[in-house]
Amino acid sequence: MIILKIGGSAITKKNAIKPTIDHENLDRICSELQYTNQQLILIHGAGSYGHIYAKQYEVGSKIETNSKERLMGVAKTQNSAQKLNNIVCEKLQEYQIPAIGIQPSAFIRNKNGKIIKFDYSIIKQYLDDGFVPVLYGDAILDENNDIKSSILSGDQIIKYLGENLRPEKVILGSDVDGIYTKNPNEYDDAELLEVVTKDTILESDSTHDAADVTGGMNGKINELLELAKKGVCSQIINAEKPGNIRNILENKKIKSTIIK
Ligand code: IPE
After folding, report:
1. 101 bridge partner residues
2. Is the CB of residue 51 below 6 angstroms from any atom belonging to ligand 1?
């Protein structure tokens, strides 16, 4: 079994001012996913379909009693993330992939931004029946009454499913080749790290992303290090490079960072 996350920055224009699909990338990524005969769980980020609303309405921060504004923010974030999921599933189906969109906010609960309830038996059943379940980053209920709802990132879903289903591979498709010593967009001497462990020291600004409410690359590394602690390694790859997803599904070596 493979769990693959496609970052929101790969399938949407993440810094756009309104939800915007990156059609070219989405189409190519979906076409490359045809090349696996293993069980596949797909998780996608929300990109500009989620972060814009989550940021604007400060989903996950302390809420005033009956704040209609916040309720609207959560509702809009959910609706928008679900729209993206529909678009992704439709595209996958065009490539004869039996994609089933599964809405995280309908059955997963957080407490203080961390998953506390997640009955994944439905995902397992779909998988066993030959479907490709497709989950995504979402705004979900939070049992802390001060915030009432919080953001569930695709990386948190990966970590939870990775720990519990123990897949053969956990892959994160991002918009960079992996984790660098420094921010590669700013420093020419930034080097790609082939392996990251809990002892790797990274410069804090190497992972900053202003449009991201779930911690950018830093948030990912932390979730993946937690997963590695439980004995499940993962790999960050560049999903924007044509052929990368297909190659990784076919066990070919590509530029990447392994978290172990
Ligand atoms: C974010 O999910 C969810 C929302 C903002 C609603 P992710 O953190 O997994 O999304 P990307 O990959 O950064 O876009």
Report:
1. 134
2. yes
Identify which of 153, 207, 217, 237 to mutate to test ligand 1's pocket (most ligand atoms within 8 A of the CB). 153
Atom of ligand 1 nearest to the CA of 81: 6
Contacts of 251 (CB under 8 A, 6+ apart): none
Q: Which of 51, 135, 217 is the pocket-test mutation for ligand 1 (most atoms within 8 Å of CB)?
A: 51
Q: Which residues of 118-138 are buried (b: 16+ CB within 10 A; e: fewer)?
A: bebeebbebbeeebbbbbbbb
Q: Say which amino acid occupies 160.
A: Y
As a CATH number, domain 2-167 is 3.40.1160.10
Helix, strand, coil percent values for the chain (each to nearest 5): 35, 20, 40
pLDDT digits (tens, 9 = 90+) for 57-83: 999 888 876 689 999 999 999 999 999
Instruction: Give tens-digit pLDDT for 102-150.
Output: 999 999 999 999 999 999 999 999 999 999 999 999 999 999 999 999 9
Distance of alpha carbon 33 from alpha carbon 40, whole angstroms: 9
Centre of ligand 1 to C-alpha 100, Å, is 19
List the domain boundaries for the chain. Answer: 2-167
